[in-house]
Design goal:
There is one protein chain. By secondary structure, the protein is α+β, with helices and mostly antiparallel strands. Helix content is about 30%, strand content about 20%. β3 and β4 form a beta hairpin. The structure holds zinc ion (2 copies). The site of one zinc ion has 8 residues, from β4 and α1.
Length: about 150
């Protein structure tokens, strides 16, 4: 004759690092989880509730952060952000070089950056190391006025 005594109920230790409480291994203390060996979840009910709400919050925060990082300033329609100088300019051949391979038909860099890069490369390519002092024939322009003040 088997007698069911409360003392014989197997105990289960909550796996949450801040809890680790030995509790009766019953659905009263642990959420049922058919995927687990003993049919109960790793965390006690209290911890499951806590982690669920915390995870939910953290997930939402992470998603919001990701959105912010991916899209810090939304670029208005018809405009394009230069991936070199980060300026938002009109997506026209006036500011960007045409590039049929890209999705919008324009290159990633604005024209002034492309020019700057080409100048830079040209200067670096010249054997200037032998010269005692290198004087650039013109200062590198980073953001020319009229382009920087593009109306938008
Ligand atoms: Zn717990
Ligand atoms: Zn640029």
């Amino acid at each position: 004759m088997i007698q069911h005594q409360p003392a014989n109920t197997p105990t289960k230790i909550c796996s949450h690092k801040d809890c680790n409480k030995p509790l009766p291994a019953t659905v009263e203390y642990f959420y049922p989880d058919p995927a687990k060996k003993d049919g109960l979840s790793y965390y006690c009910r209290t911890c499951s509730k806590l982690t669920a709400s915390r995870n939910g919050k953290a997930r939402r925060r992470a998603a919001a952060l990701r959105r912010k990082v991916e899209n810090p300033n939304p670029v208005p329609a018809g405009y394009k952000k230069c991936s070199s100088c980060k300026m938002i300019l009109q997506a026209t051949s006036e500011f960007f070089t045409k590039r049929s391979a890209s999705a919008d038909g324009f290159g990633y860099w604005c024209k002034s950056c492309v020019r700057g890069y080409q100048n830079d490369r040209y200067h670096r390519g010249t054997p200037s190391l032998q010269l005692p002092a290198q004087l650039p024939d013109q200062p590198l322009q980073q953001a020319p006025g009229p382009v920087a003040n593009a109306p938008y």
